[in-house]
Design goal:
Blueprint (H helix, E strand, L loop, with lengths): L3 H13 L29 E7 L14 H14 L8 E5 L11 H12 L7 E7 L2 E3 L5 E3 L9 H4 L1 E2 H10 L4 E6 L6 H6 L6 E5 L17 H13 L7 E3 H16 L9 E4 L7 E4 L7 E2 L7 E2 L3 H7 L3 E2 L2 E2 L3 E3 L5 E5 L2 E5 L16 E5 L3 E4 L5 H8 L1 H14 L26 H12 L2 H6 L2 E3 L3 H9 L57 E7 L35 E4 L15 E4 L13 E2 L3 E3 L1
Helix pairs in contact: 2-7, 3-5, 7-8, 10-11
Length: about 600
């Protein structure tokens, strides 16, 4: 129990404004101006609740210095840049002059519930929270209002169960909750995943705290949220930021802020049933960089380089270069925007159900892609020699018998030009993060990531519609695979095994080894029937794992990620442009296919 003076202060704050115990602000003024464009012209409005808590009455609850600065920063982005009317944004912070808008428990319960009740079925609601949180034994989670007692949050805090009920009662079918809590935010997000139509984003995972840059009060996560809402996350240039674009942007920015060698602080995302892509910000024009006034001053908005790509591939009035070579010698080629047919027809040899239905996809932004799979030398340069040595030690343990099936060439561990094998998805993501954080790459403004599955297939095909970008036949004269015949009339090819990158001619985009050699990771989660729901413009994969893919070994669910292109030991059907594979991203599996896993990178200009 905290001392009586704190109780007296809390009661005094409530007495100062009787409306705090009821549904104050329950009836904001009616607005005739409605936002359009979220549903093809259907009337729709944007509502938001922003909560920031810095100080607590119980001395045992440490202040969260980023609480109010984070909330003010996000509030400024919403009302100044993201298309939210100030009258539809409820701001609850320590520094509010009106008592009923301060973050006391009674206010969080009554004000948030009343505010959410205004949203209609076609509206979108966004809730942002920055403050302390508690997770009790058994996993029950709580948001901490100012009068929260650390000894008994059950009696004094806002239960996430109560928040979930508020969101369930809210009629808006599109809901986004962003948790910038100063304590574990992952359990808070997970507790909300039963809400229909809701996406929840947590700033970090269990056991982590949000990153705060030196000399700043705002967290890297909330600063990235504000930048995203201010327009920088508008990847396809449609003047909207949706939940998918927001998630991608936050992953990239927070990972870059974590810096070289950091393996944590990745934002965590869950989605409820019936979730849609949630439009969370809109712009009448593409935003220009400017200062936000909601909190401490920060520059926001897309750079000239980013705007150029979204509007046709120019930078500073000049055409983007066709090729670039980065600071570690990696060569990348510009892949232009365009359309293609994704998936395969039912009569294609090797066709699988997860490649249906074949559908048209439009890639709206040009991007750079590695000409080759990431090599051993490049991996060691970005990840460091110690990490590289540990990875290759695992490979050497597997390859105990030279000349056995699947053994790489004898000079594999001596040559820098072979693709790096044995890479799991997290290895690949960390490589991209650490390459982005290199000083020369930061100065050049390059952000590296894994390709989306759609980007990979579009780049692989290079304008072709045949099973392979070299035509209808599989032959080891064209790419590296296990040499088996493709189809009933196929001829068995002479098997060549793993080859150095660039051993074959590039496709029409200038990319080598898109078929065979090393199986390549994509960023996307795998979902077997994703093509039945995939958007036709810049698809980014499902928002969460496919819960139907059950792991009998672990008793849990695999959080599978996509792999593309086949490998040097694979059947030719698995090397097709449309062929989809998947595996576990977090660990090295007992499945010996992992020894063939590699990747190539994408760079956003």
């Amino acid at each position: 129990m905290w001392p009586s003076p704190f109780r007296q202060l809390a009661v005094a704050l409530l007495v100062l404004h009787p409306a705090a115990v009821g549904a104050a602000w329950a009836n904001p003024p009616d607005f005739e101006a409605s936002e359009k464009g979220l549903d093809s012209g259907v009337e729709s409005r944007l509502w938001a609740v922003v909560v920031g808590v810095t100080t607590y009455l119980d001395p045992a609850v440490r202040a969260w210095e980023s609480g109010v600065p984070d909330a003010r920063l996000v509030y400024g982005a919403l009302v100044e840049r993201a298309g939210y009317s100030a009258e539809r944004v409820l701001l609850i912070t320590d520094d509010q002059p009106k008592p009923h808008l301060r973050p006391l428990g009674i206010n969080l319960r009554t004000q948030i519930s009343a505010w959410l009740a205004h949203a209609a079925a076609n509206d979108t609601v966004l809730l942002f929270y920055a403050g302390r949180a508690f997770v009790r034994p058994g996993g029950r989670a709580y948001l901490a209002p100012q009068e929260c007692e650390s000894a008994q949050p059950e009696a004094t805090a806002l239960s996430v169960d109560d928040l979930r009920e508020m969101l369930i009662r809210c009629r808006a079918r599109r809901k986004l909750v962003i948790l910038g809590a100063g304590s574990p935010s992952q359990p808070l997000a997970e507790a909300l995943q039963t809400v229909v139509g809701l996406t929840a984003l947590a700033c970090c995972r269990q056991g982590e705290t949000p990153l705060v840059a030196e000399g700043k009060k705002e967290t890297a996560f909330s600063a990235s949220v504000a930048r995203a809402l201010s327009g920088e996350a508008d990847a396809n240039g449609d003047q909207f930021v949706d939940s998918e674009e927001l998630c991608r942007f936050l992953n990239r920015q927070v990972q870059a802020a974590a810096g070289k060698g950091a393996d944590s602080h990745m934002p965590f995302q869950v989605s409820g049933k019936g979730v849609e892509v949630v439009p969370v910000a809109k712009f009448s024009v593409k935003p220009e960089p400017q200062q936000l006034t909601g909190s401490a001053q920060h520059q926001h908005g897309p750079s000239t380089r980013q705007e150029a790509v979204a509007t046709g591939g120019t930078s500073g009035g000049s055409q983007l270069p066709k090729h670039i070579t980065n600071s570690i010698g990696m060569k990348l080629v510009l892949i232009p925007a365009g359309e293609f047919m994704m998936g395969s027809p039912d009569d294609e040899i090797g066709h699988k159900e997860d490649e249906s239905p074949q559908h048209k996809v439009r890639i709206t932004k040009a991007f750079y892609m590695g000409v080759y799979e990431v090599t051993r030398a490049e991996f060691a340069e970005a990840r460091g020699s110690e990490v590289h040595a540990k990875l290759e030690s695992r490979l050497k343990q597997y390859f105990q018998f030279p000349g056995s099936y699947g053994y790489p060439p004898e000079d594999y561990f001596q040559s820098d030009r072979y693709p790096q094998l044995g890479v799991n998805w997290e290895d690949a993501v960390r490589f991209c993060r650490e390459l982005t954080a290199m000083p020369d790459e930061k100065r050049a403004g390059r952000n590296y990531r894994l390709p989306t599955e759609a980007e990979w297939e579009y780049a692989c095909r290079g304008g072709t519609t045949s099973p392979f970008n070299v035509g209808h036949d599989a032959d080891t004269e064209y790419f590296s695979f296990n040499g088996s015949p493709y189809g009933e009339n196929g001829l068995k090819s002479k098997r060549k095994g793993l080859l150095k990158v660039g051993s074959y001619q590039p496709n029409s985009f200038g990319l080598c080894d898109m078929h065979g050699n090393a199986l390549e990771w994509c960023f996307d989660y795998y979902k077997r029937d994703y093509y039945t729901e995939s958007p036709s413009v810049d698809p980014r994969g499902p928002l969460q794992k496919d819960a139907r893919l059950h792991s009998a070994t672990t008793g849990g669910y695999y959080n599978l990620r996509v792999l593309r292109g086949g490998h040097y030991r694979a059947l030719p059907a698995k090397c097709r442009s449309a062929a989809r594979q998947r595996d576990v991203p977090q660990a090295y599996t007992s499945d010996d296919d992992y020894i063939s896993f590699g990747f190539r990178v994408v760079c956003d200009p």
